[in-house]
Amino acid sequence: MEKEFTILIADRNRHVRELLKREMMAEGYRVRLAKNGREVLEQAYHHEPLDLLILDLDLPDAGEVAILESIEDRIPTLPVVVHSFLSDSANNRAVLSTAVFVEKKGSSIETLKKVAFEVLHNSNPKRTNISE
User: Which helix or strand (DSSP H or E) is residue 31 part of?
Assistant: First the structure.
């Protein structure tokens, strides 16, 4: 698979951001980081296009659903994977209808990598030549 994809990882916790960055870069992705809602919107709207947004909805300066609504309104083709605690957002219909949800827990990084691969493949089939 061609993995020249750019992923934006948004999480309030610097350690989580850095861990996810290392893991996704090891998979061959280009990674950008955001620590709050303002940075998510700036990265999404004012830089080179993104292929995927991995988003923890518990960001400073952002309402849980406001970020998703803003992204969906301006960039409806940008796939979003919500990486959050189940108690924070899984019961929110807006989250479940607009994004793939991966619960933060012990082995969630492996699940997140698998989901990111699948989302990128499904949203960019011409860029992901996979020999089966």
Answer: strand 30-34
